[in-house]
Amino acid sequence: MNIEEAAKQLEALGNPTRLQLYRTLVRAGHGGLPVNQVQERLGIPASTLSHHLQRLIRNGLVTQERQATTLICRAVYPAMDALLGFLADECCIEEGCSEASGKAA
Q1: Is the pLDDT of residue 43 over 80?
Q2: Where do the TM regions start and end (predicted)?
């Protein structure tokens, strides 16, 4: 992951509604949730939900899949893992390897 991609994803998650939406989908697991259930859980209008979903989809954090007449939304776990890894990759690196990895010297 590069810094530009990370910045875009963090910006997308920087909105309280989108962050709540994303957390709802992360909690739902790999099966995801139908759009109507997401809307019910968040208590927001369909047009607002659609706007926020599109922003998360554009930034690779969420996917949608049509199953017959139902639209299923899912968190993209590899993207989440990559973003979290990007944020933590260099944690304490300037302190030296033993401290950065959490091992006692």
Answers
A1: yes
A2: none
For residue 75, the cross-strand partners are: 62
pLDDT range class, residue 104, cuts 50, 70, 90: very low
Strand segments, DSSP code E, in the chain are: 33-34, 62-67, 70-75
Q: pTM for this structure?
A: 0.85
Provide the pLDDT for residue 23. Answer: 98
* Topology (CATH) of 3-76: Arc Repressor Mutant, subunit A (1.10.10)
Strand 70-75 to strand 62-67: parallel, antiparallel, or no bridges (unpaired)?
Answer: antiparallel
Give the C-alpha separation, 57 to 75, whole Å. 9
For residues 56 and 49, give the distance between their C-alpha atoms in angstroms, rounded to a whole number: 11
CB 98 within 8 A of CB 17: no
Query: Is residue 73 exposed (0-12), middle (13-18) or buried (19+ Cβ within 10 Å)?
Result: buried
